[in-house]
Each structure stands twice: as C-alpha cells, then as structure tokens.
C-alpha cells in the first residue's frame, strides 16, 4: 500500500529545507571543483547534499527506491521512488550565482505524484501534488492563464546547447512569444508553476533534472512534455517544454520540431 501523500509532502519539505544548510555552508566559499566523465562539474557540496537527503529519506521511508545524480540507484525503482538532484545548477553554484536549486520528486509506479523545487539561497520551496495543487512557501500558486503565444513570456534554457545542436530550431524559438530570456537550470520551471512566466524550453536533461519538475508543473495547472508532446519517462531524451496552459503547449510544439 502506498504511503499517504500528505506524509510524503511533509517529509519532502522538511528534508529539503534541512538539507539546504549543506550547500549554503559552501556557497561563495573556497572548495575544489572536479569534473565528471561528461565533463560537467561536481563539488563536495553536491555529494554531501545528496548524502544528507538519502540518509533522511532512508530513515523516513526505508522501503522506497532512490535515484540520485551523484550516487545512482538505491533499491527498486518499480514502486515508490524518490528522484534527487542535490544541486541543480552546479555551474551557477560554483560561480556564486544564487539561482541554483535542489530537486526532489516522488513517483509511485513510475507516475509523478509530487514535485519539489527548493532554492536554498532564496529560501523558497515550491511543492506540488497533481490533483491537490501547488504552493510556494506554503501559499497556493498556479500557472498563468495566457493562451496566445504572441503574448507569452518564453524562457529558453541551455540556449548555447540548443543553438549548437539545432541552429534552425533555435532561430525559430528565439523569435517566438512576446518576450524571451535565455536561462539555465530549474528556476524558470518554478516560475512557470508560480505564474511568473508562461513557457520554459529546456535541452539535454537527465531524469533527475526533469522528473521532479513534472509533479510541480502539473499540480500548478501546467503541462510538461518532451519536444514532441510525449509524456516524460525515465527513458525520455531530455528535451522538454513546460507551458502554463494547454493552448500555449499546443502552440509552441510546432517550433520544436527537428
């Protein structure tokens, strides 16, 4: 029998907020930056933060599986599963930029049941449960009601990667919407959930980057899929789009055709 979702939510918020002390103890301080096999950076803060979260989850939910960026898979991912990205935006973190986040998602049978974005340097906690709504620091939030693409605020994450790999697509999306901003990491997705912006296009993500966001976006009233409009799963390519309304989602998909 699945764990009650209220228990999941309360534990996720508590653990994320307590874990925030770990990266903040290193933020804008001196530490060594290593490189992974894919040449992406990793720090002691990434590893210690995930270790803290894993320990806390193990104490609260010993039978749940965990997939984390730094330490991989623990237990089975077939049932109740946690997805953890301890520092989403390590490049931001190591350069003193405060828009790095912490991601936690809860899946049951592969379905996103809760999504959480914690912004340690901003002291913001976004959490959503599909069907029950979303909150920012305990106050209800929802996506914007924008339906016309020409009026939409569009954030384009990883613009250098999109431009390098799909130059024609980049030109299309850089001329779409009412306003555009280049961005990175998880915060623009949280801004979609809270109604601040309308669309976030993202590129080259891993499951621990996008799976925790789905529950938050959907709980707030939005839609999050891959660039072809397909449901996101563990096996997805990692090119994703989050939109505030079904109308905007349908309107942006033709621009994402490769």
Automatic annotation (TrEMBL):
Known cofactor(s): Mg(2+)
Coiled coil ranges: none
One GO term (biological process): inositol metabolic process
Source organism, top-level taxon: Bacteria
Record's keyword terms, sorted: Hydrolase, Magnesium, Metal-binding
A Pfam family matched in the record: Inositol_P
InterPro entries attached to this UniProt entry: Inositol_monoP_metal-BS (IPR020583), Inositol_monophosphatase-like (IPR000760)
EC number: 3.1.3.25
Residues involved in Mg(2+) binding: 69, 85, 87-88, 209
Catalytic activity reported: a myo-inositol phosphate + H2O = myo-inositol + phosphate
UniProt protein name: Inositol-1-monophosphatase
Taxonomic source organism: Hwanghaeella grinnelliae
